Amino acid sequence: MIEKSKRVPYKSLALTIALWVFSLLIHFDFPLKTIAIFALVMASFWMNSIYRNVPGSVFSPSLWGFKKSLNWILVAIILSLILSIYSRIEDGLPAVPSKIGVFVIIAVFIGFVEEVVFRGFVQGGAQQWNQKGAIVLASVSHAGYKALLFVFPLQHINNSNFELFGYTFLAGLVLGYSRYITGSLWPAILAHCIFDFWLYMELSTGPWWVW
């Protein structure tokens, strides 16, 4: 039997690779888009496999409780607001949005789904390998997914892909640690959703990168 600390988190690694292929190729036309769609199907396969074979990875009742995470939730709300205001100012937008657009609903949903995928499935699937290593793996997985979205077609964004990877990786470490220390996904989910809500509040349509 393989010792717990020496188990290779191959399901989380396979899920990461599938998501990276999807984000890299999704903006191409067919036939490359077909590969992206197939990669997304494979990502769903690996998420299902993690759900079935790694107890407590995503949908255990404790992960969706608030009791032990209220302080972290408060910290998450404050930090996400500060970061979203900073990002708006850096992008040349007013710190406080002037209106609420339709896209903000989708933006919040995207933030929710990303946390379930990366802090849930990827980190949860790797936690039997190593708890702290799982935090790093989920952060790399999420950062790579974000950065690769902007490679093809190469787009002009306020931050380089390298900077985007770095910011997302550092944020992922904090979000992943919140799951580790509280045993709950809510601090990470709320932080991400509030960040996206404030950052994209005025948009009436989705940015080009929303596939």
Task: Walk me through this protein's architecture.
By secondary structure, this protein is mostly helical. It has one domain. The chain contains seven helices and no strands. The protein has helices spanning 10-25, 32-53, 70-90, 103-126, 131-148, 161-182, 186-199. Helix 6 packs antiparallel against helix 7. The longest helix is centred in the middle third of the chain and has 24 residues, at 103-126. The chain starts with 9 loop residues before the first helix and ends in a 12-residue tail after the last helix.
Roughly how many Å is the radius of gyration?
A: 17 Å
The percent range for helix content is 55-70%
Low-confidence stretches: 1-5
Structural class: mainly alpha
Our estimate of the beta-strand percent is under 5%
Oligomer: single chain
Mean pLDDT: 89
How many structurally independent domains? 1
Quick one: overall form?
A: globular
Q: How many DSSP-defined strands?
A: 0
Distance between the termini: 43 Å
Task: Report the biggest beta sheet as strand number plus sense, adding barrel if it closes.
Answer: none
The SSE order reads HHHHHHH
Tally of alpha and pi helices:
7
Q: Can you give keywords for this protein?
A:
211 residues, mainly alpha, 65% helix, disordered N terminus
What would a concise description of this structure say?
The protein has 211 residues and is mostly helical. The chain has seven helices and no strands. The longest helix has 24 residues, at 103-126.
Map the helices and strands.
Blueprint lengths: L9 H16 L6 H22 L16 H21 L12 H24 L4 H18 L12 H22 L3 H14 L12
Helix pairs in contact: 1-2, 1-4, 1-5, 3-7, 4-5, 4-7, 5-6, 6-7
